[in-house]
Each structure stands twice: as C-alpha cells, then as structure tokens.
Design goal:
Helices cover 26% and strands 13% of the residues. By secondary structure, it is α/β, with parallel strands linked by helices. The protein contains nine helices and 15 strands. The longest helix has 27 residues. It has a single domain, classed as 3-Layer(aba) Sandwich (Alkaline Phosphatase, subunit A).
Length: 439
C-alpha cells in the first residue's frame, strides 16, 4: 500500500508517461501540498554588458532602468536588479576570460594549469545532487553553442563552454539539440522518433479525463497539450531551415544527408525553443533546476539578424575599444539577451497554477560573468533576479552592494540564500558562509 501519495498526475500511453500541470480539479489523488514546487533557472549570456546602459533606480512600477534593460520595462515589479556582487577568485584571476567564466555559479578558483581541468561544483548541481531525485530529470542543462575543444591562451575551451559543473573537474552534460531535450522530457528515453507526436499516445486518456475537470482546468489541459504540439512542430520546422547564423561556409546547402535530429539554424528560434523547453520542463515537473547558456564565452555567434548590427561576431562587438559604432551594436546584443529573459518571464506569468502564476513559484536569474566586456572587468557581475520563490522573495527592487564592503558583496552569499529557498541549507558554499543581506 502506498503511504506516500504523490501530487503528480499523468497521462499514460505506450512507453510514455506525460506529467500534467498543476490543476485544482484533481485534489482527490492525495496531494501533499496545494502549492506548486519552487523552481530555479539560470539564463546566462557571455561577455558582459555595455556599462553606461546597465543601471536601475527606484522601485516597483516607477523603477527607472537603463537602455540595456529596456525589455524589462513591463516586468519591473517582477524583478530585483542586483548591483555589486562579485567573485574574488574571478577578480584576481590572470586569465581575463577562462579564469572568470566557468566559476560563474561556484566562485571557485579556476585551474590555469593546462594539464589540470578544475573549477568547482556549481550551485545548480549542488541543488541537483540534494533534491534532483524528486524529479525524473535531476537538472536540465541547456545551451545554444556546442562545447569547444580548442585551446585559448593555452587553456581548454571546455571552460568557456560550461557554466554548470557536476564535479570540480567535470562539466554537466550540456544539451544544445531541442529535439533531444524534448525527448528527455516527454519521451520514453528509448529513441522515440521526434516526428511522431507524443500526444498520439496519450490523447485517448486526455479525452477521458476532460469530463472530470472544471471549465478552467479543461482549458488549461487543452492549452498544455497544444503547447507540446507547438514545440514539436517548431522543432521539426527549425530542423528544415538552411540558414546559418555565425560563420558561413563556402557552400550554402549541405553536401550530405541531414541527420535525423536536427539543430535549429536560426539563432533566435533556437533560443526561443530552449526557453520554451525550460517552461515545459518546469510545468511538467520533470525538473526544478535548469541552466541555459545563450552563448559560450568568447562566442563566435553572429548577430547580423538584429537590425543595425552588421556582420560582427559577438566577441568583436564586446571587445570594441569603445568605438561608438561598435558600442551601439553591443547595446543591441545586450537588449536582445535581456529580451530572451523577458520572453521567459512572459511565459511564466501566463501559466496559472491555482491562484498564482508559475513565475510566483519560481526564481529566475539572468546573469553574465563580466561587467564591462571590453575591459574584462570582474569587480561586479550583471544580475537580474525574477520571480516570487513561492513567497520567499520580494521583487520590484534595486539592491546595491557596491559600497557595502567585500564581505557583503560575495555572490556565493547570494547563492546560499537562493539554495535556502530551494530547501537546501549549507553551512558554506564557495567563499562564503553568510547569507546575502536584504534579499
């Protein structure tokens, strides 16, 4: 006899168990709590910001924000702009990029010995190790650009390809293929073909369930199933595109058969798919921990898809020598990255979970490892925190730690505070044994 009933409800088909979103109409399968779980996600963009345009002051709906944050205008009451947090080990590193990027979520010392790969276990993976067993996927680690195996200044670019580290010497496996991430979330894990919808296996049970639901939950179920169908269609469509963002090869069409699992060739569509998969993963409660790298460090991503950005690589735009034309394009890339975060907030706010939105139950961190990308400055890191954390966070604020002294500026104190809110309490993490004041 099961004496530990679960709050999860499933639609089941051959080889498939599709977890449903939270619904008020299904209280009879004994729920341990009426509140959705707290989720945590990190959205990372590389190479910092244009400092003159990265600022905020005031609070709530009257908060003023700099041009780099323009996409956050509709969400000022949902965010906390955090200024001044840093990692001491990144600040003192003699490697301006690879010594200041892989430790973004750990604060650890990065080994600059070419023969030794070592950083530190990141806070998302600490969470995964402590609470990941509660879900089918302990943590979702996503990216847009592939892991790079070349050397940069004598160091492995695996450092620049990973913000999530399962151990001090091993990065967590990053998935850049939307189809594979999708299958991990909703498939049977046995190579289900992506062009045969997962819904085909569960629609009969869905139809049987509908009469048992209230009107609002019937609409929620329809929207949920349609959102899965939409992601499948977009994955299939994206894989058929022949455009390439970034370096363009000497031929404009493949000279080999296309692999069965395609990687989207349009950067904005790729990012949107990955963001939608984070939404889906959290909504299905397949995981409660996710990281998404919008670009690698020293990224070669080409932003010519943005109006006014003319063919320059991301790395060149961020290392602009303060040339006005390049700075203007750098600002556009900052706005584009923040726009991706804004899209995620919009999606989270649209999902009702019984009197509160999915944003209310989540903590979403948008960040970069450098401040001024051109100067490689590591005296602070750009950070925006969104979501209510199931009532554990107050938003619509600016928290400025720049003048509070180094001991009160440690990003690891911030991470300890976030882990507390996920139910993981540690005495120490990285270089801190304190919690962030005022959070």
């Amino acid at each position: 006899m099961n004496i530990h009933p679960t709050r999860r409800h499933f639609l089941r088909g051959a080889g498939v168990a599709l977890a449903l979103p939270w619904m008020e109409s299904l209280p009879l399968i004994a729920q341990q709590t009426s509140k959705p779980p707290t989720r945590f996600a990190v959205i990372y963009f590389s190479n910092g910001v244009e400092p003159a345009h990265w600022w905020a002051k005031g609070s709530g709906a009257s908060m003023e924000i700099g041009p780099g944050l323009a996409p956050m205008m509709p969400y000022r009451e949902d965010i906390t702009f955090i200024r001044g947090l840093y990692h001491q080990q990144a600040f003192v590193s003699t490697s301006p990029h690879l010594g200041r990027m892989p430790n973004m979520l750990s604060g650890a010392t990065v080994s600059l010995d070419p023969s030794v790969i070592r950083v530190g276990t990141t806070m998302d993976q600490v969470l995964s190790q402590r609470i990941g067993a509660r879900t089918a996927v302990p943590s979702l680690v996503l990216g847009i650009e592939p892991n790079e195996l070349r050397l940069e200044d004598g160091l492995s670019m695996i450092y620049g390809s990973s913000i999530s580290w399962a151990t001090p010497s091993k990065p967590a496996t990053k998935e850049i293929y939307p189809a594979r991430a999708f299958d991990r979330l909703v498939g049977d894990g046995k190579g289900r073909v992506t062009d045969k919808s997962i819904l085909d296996a569960v629609l009969t049970e869905a139809h049987d369930l509908q009469p048992k639901l209230g009107g609002g939950d019937r609409r929620k179920l329809d929207e949920y199933l349609e959102s899965i169908r939409d992601i499948e269609k977009r994955i299939e469509r994206a894989g058929k595109q022949e455009r390439l963002e970034g370096w363009r090869p000497s031929i404009d069409k493949p000279d080999m058969l296309r692999p069965a699992e395609q990687l989207p060739q349009d950067v904005p569509e790729h990012m949107k798919l990955m963001l939608d998969l984070v939404v889906l993963a959290f909504r299905m409660d397949k995981t409660r921990i996710a990281t998404l790298m919008l670009n690698n460090d020293l990224s070669q991503m080409n932003f010519r898809f943005l109006e006014g950005v003319q063919g320059a690589l991301h790395l060149d735009l961020t290392h602009n020598g303060k040339a006005p034309a390049l700075e203007a394009m750098y600002l556009k890339t900052n706005q584009f990255h923040i726009g991706q975060f804004a899209y995620l907030l919009k999606r989270f706010k649209e999902i009702d979970e019984g009197g509160q939105t999915m944003l209310d139950s989540s903590m979403l961190l948008c960040c970069s490892n450098l401040f001024d990308g051109d100067a490689h400055s590591a005296e602070q890191m750009p950070m925006i925190l969104a979501g209510g954390g199931n009532g554990a966070l107050k938003q619509g604020r600016v928290l400025d730690y720049m003048d509070k002294g180094d001991d009160n500026r440690r990003a690891c104190s911030f991470y300890l505070s976030l882990m507390d809110r996920m139910g993981v309490e540690l005495e120490r993490f990285g270089d801190s044994d304190k919690r962030l004041v005022d959070l």
